Amino acid sequence: MKKIIHCLSVTLAIISLSYLTAGASDSLKVTTPAGIVADADNAGLKLPNGFSALKVAENVGKSRHIVVTAQGDIYVKLDRVVNGKGVLRLHDSKGNGKADNITGLGNYGGTGITIKNGYLYASSNTEVFRYKLNAKNEVINLDAPEKIITGLGTGQHPSKSIVLDNENHIYVNQGAYSNSCQEQDRTLGSKGKMPCPVLNDAAGIWQYSADKLNQTQADGVRYGTGLRNVVGLDWNQQTNSLFVMQHGRDQLFQNWPEFFTEKQSAELPSECMYEIKKGANAGWPYIFYDHIQHKKILAPEYGGDGKKEGGKDAIDPVVAFPGHLAPDGLLFYTGSMFPAKYKNGAFIAFHGSWNRAPLPQEGYYVVFVPFKNGKPSGDSEVFANGFSGLAQVNSPGEAKHRPCGLAQGPDGSLYVSDDAKGTIYRIIYKGK
Amino acid sequence: MKQLIPSLCLILVLMSFQTQPKKQVLIKPKTAVVTAAPAAGMKAVLLRGKAVYLQQCLACHQADGGGVAHLNAPLNGAAAVVGKDKEKLIRIVLKGMKGVDIDDESYNNTMAPHPELTDQQIADVLTYARNSWTNKASAVSAAEVKAVRAKIK
C-alpha cells in the first residue's frame, strides 16, 4: 500500500503553498450559481484561489451532520434539541443563498443525517429514524417517523453517524465506550482487557437493513471492527465501498509516561482513513497507527512500548493524519462546480483537537485529499481554514466555530456545518 | 501540492517541534512527595498545585479550566469546585467521576481515579483549581485529603 504522510499540523508554509497551487490548472466549465453572492469576508474562511464562501445561516444550534436535497434545501441534524426540534430544514426562498425559512422536525438530538431512495434518515445517539419524502424532497409527515433501529448503546463516543450503500443497507457507527479498553478507563498504567469485550457490541460499524422497522443491534451485522470511534463516514460511489475516519485513542503520555513524551502523545496516534470491506478489522484497542514510523504499533495497554509492532490481522489506513484532529465529516466530492482535481477526492472536516495540550490544539479546518481510481493520489491540502477565528487555539472552548458535517449541493457547492455556534457555510467556485 | 514530498513534511514536523516549549520533566506521583512547610505561602501551594494540574488534569480540563464541550466538565466557574463541600472534591479526585450530569449538561468522557497522587498533591491541585481562572475559594489541606482517603478505604 502506498503510504502518504500528511503533516497538516505543521507550519503555515504548507498552508500558504496550498493556496498558490490549488486551482491553478483547471479548464472546467464552471456552473456558476446564479444569484449566489459570496460574503465580502468569505464567511471568515481562508480558501484556495477562485473559491469563495457565504454563511447560509447562523446560530441555528449545534449543527452536526448535514445533507442537501436536489432542490437545494439543507437538512441539519442538531446535537441537542432547540425549541423542541432536533432536525432543521433550511430553505432559501429568494435564491440568494441565504436561508430565510427555517422549519424543524424530530424531538431528539444526535449526529447522523442522510437522504437516499426517497427517505430522509436521521439518528439520535440510540436510534435511527426515517421519513418519507415527496417529489420536492420535503418530509411528508413531520410527526410520524419510522423507527428503523432502536436500543443502541452510548457511552463516551455516542454519535451514530449513518450512511447507505446502493443495496438498501444502512451503516451505523457504534463507538467504543472506552478509550483503550483498559481495566480502568483512562487510568495511569492500567492494562488492557484481553480479549477486549468492548469489541463485541461496539468499536465498529454495524450494517442494518434500511427499511426494516425496530431492528436492534442483534439484527445487524458487525461489518467492520477495531474502530474506536467513527464520526465522519461516506459511501464511495467510485469504489462502491465504505470509507470511514477513525478518531484515535487519547492519553498515551498521561497513562504511559514511561513510553511516550507529551509531544509524541500530541502527535500520536494517527487519525486514520480506512476503506472498510465486510469483516475488516482496523486493530483497536490492540494497536494504533503511527504515521511517523509508518507502522502499526502495539498499544501500551497490551505490552507495547511505542516501537513494538502489532496487528498482523489489521488493515492499513488509506491515509493517516496527525493525532487528535478529530475528523467528524467525510465527503467524496462528485460535483462539477470545483476544478477537475477535486472530482472523486475526499473532503474531511476536522473538528479540532482537545488532547494535544500543553501543545497548541490543531484541526478546526477542512482538508482535501485528491483521489484517482479510488486511491489517494498526491498530497492533501488544508482546503478551508479560519473556522476558529484564531491564529492558535490553546483550548477548544476558544474556537469560534468548529467544522463538523459536510454535504454537496446539487450545483456542486460544498456545505460545512459548525457545531460550536451553528453556522452553515457554503463554499463555491467561480474561477479566477 | 505535488512538490510537498513527505520528507519535507517530516522536516517541517521536526522544525515545529523545536519551536515548542521544552518538555516538562515528569513528576513521578509516588516519589515526588512535596513536604509543605507549615508557613508555606499560598503562592508556593499554587505553584505546586499548578505542576500537578499540568501533568494530571490539563489534558482534559484544559489550560483555561474550561473543559471540552460535552466531553470534559469545566472547572472554571463550577459550583462544585468552589463550593464548601471539600470532601466531595477530594472524592472526585480519589475515585474519579463518570456519567453524572452537571448543571443539566452531560459529559461523555470518563475521569479516572487518581489514588496514586499523594495527600499533599491532591490538596495542592484542588487548592489550585479553587483559586485559578475566575475561581476564588479556601485552600484544601493534606490533612483533609488524608481524612477522606481513610474513609474510602
Structure description:
The complex is a heterodimer of chains A (432) and B (153). Chain A has 432 residues and is mostly beta strands. Chain A has one domain (8-429): TolB, C-terminal domain (Neuraminidase), CATH 2.120.10.30. Helix content of chain A is 6%, strand content 34%. The longest helix of chain A has 10 residues, at 12-21. Chain A is globular, with a radius of gyration of 21 Å. Residues 1-31 of chain A have low confidence and may be disordered. By secondary structure, chain B is an all-alpha fold. Chain B has one domain (37-152): Cytochrome Bc1 Complex, Chain D, domain 2, CATH 1.10.760. Chain B has seven helices and no strands. Chain B has helices spanning 6-18, 42-56, 58-61, 79-82, 86-95, 119-130, 142-152. Chain B is globular. The interface between A and B is large, with 50 and 44 residues.
CATH fold annotation of chain B: Cytochrome Bc1 Complex, Chain D, domain 2
Counting structural domains of chain B, the number is 1
What oligomeric arrangement do these chains adopt?
heterodimer
Number of strands of chain B: 0
CATH topology of chain A: Neuraminidase
